[in-house]
């Protein structure tokens, strides 16, 4: 006799995916939460006029009018005493740099090896590729001047992913964005403690790049935003990306023999793989 758990176990043949079937479109003029205040006409009128008032107030009081020469960065101004400590006590700056480099190197190896050993989708590297390609384009479209307190001397201890010296690679921060993507990926696969650690490390990297003045404050905030946005977009297009990757692989495949791979799934968790 079959139990309820037995009925939840199904066999999924990944090789049978030949095209995509999408559900009917959702009416995006409506809400997924019926009865929320947006269904009230008076509330919508209130929001409309509030929006008009707030936009005008922001234009009047929140738009800078000073004629700034160069770049004015509050983050650099606030952290100038820490920046001076780095210059006065070289051992201290080396320690902070090495911790930063160690975090990024470990993250680089961990996330890459975890993907190689355990994951079967291109989601992580698709997000990283998009993140760094768009970053490279921005770096060459707009070249910013070096901050006055820029200080990133070589500690004479090599790092796999961190380079030292003078490089005009400001917008946006790869130090911070990379760890945000790593944290989002770990959260996606259910490793919440590792994810939290990555997010905390991204805060440390933000502190480092601002206090050393190797990034402007806006580089850090936009690095987080871009990382989050690109990762979410990759998650949205994940199946299509993997399907495209499979199609390309089939075009350049050397073997005409096709292997059928059956995945035994319980709920949304894969519990076994069988080649037939």
TrEMBL record:
The keyword Membrane applies. Residues 73-231 form the AtPDCT1/2 transmembrane domain. The keyword Transcription regulation does not apply. It holds the Pfam family AtPDCT1_2. Keywords: Membrane, Transmembrane, Transmembrane helix. InterPro entries: AtPDCT1_2_TM_dom, PDCT1/2-like. The chain crosses the membrane at residues 43-61, 91-117, 124-141, 161-181, 193-216. This is AtPDCT1/2 transmembrane domain-containing protein.
């Amino acid at each position: 006799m079959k139990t309820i758990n037995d009925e939840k176990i199904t066999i999924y043949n990944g090789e049978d995916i030949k095209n995509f079937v999408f559900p009917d479109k959702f009416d995006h003029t409506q809400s997924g939460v019926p009865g929320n205040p947006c269904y009230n006409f008076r509330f919508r009128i209130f929001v409309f006029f509030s929006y008009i008032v707030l936009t005008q107030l922001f234009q009047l009081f929140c738009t800078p009018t000073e004629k700034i020469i160069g770049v004015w960065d509050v983050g650099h101004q606030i952290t100038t005493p820490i920046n001076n400590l780095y210059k006065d006590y070289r051992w201290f700056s080396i320690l902070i740099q090495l911790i930063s480099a160690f975090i990024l190197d470990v993250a680089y190896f961990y996330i890459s090896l975890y993907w190689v050993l355990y994951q079967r989708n291109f989601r992580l590297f698709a997000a990283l590729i998009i993140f760094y390609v768009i970053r490279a384009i921005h770096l060459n479209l707009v070249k910013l001047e070096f901050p006055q307190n820029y200080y990133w001397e070589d500690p004479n201890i090599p790092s796999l992913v961190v380079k030292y010296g003078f490089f005009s690679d400001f917008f946006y921060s790869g130090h911070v964005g990379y760890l945000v993507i790593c944290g989002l990926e770990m959260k996606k696969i259910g490793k919440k403690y590792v994810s939290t650690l990555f997010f905390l490390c991204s805060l440390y990297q933000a502190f480092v790049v601002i206090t050393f003045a190797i990034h402007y404050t806006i580089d850090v905030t936009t690095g987080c935003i871009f990382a989050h946005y690109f990762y979410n977009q990759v998650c949205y297009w994940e199946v299509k990306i993997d399907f495209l990757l499979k199609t390309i692989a089939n075009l350049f495949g050397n073997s005409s023999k096709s292997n059928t791979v059956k995945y035994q799934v319980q709920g949304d968790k894969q519990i076994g793989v069988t080649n037939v």
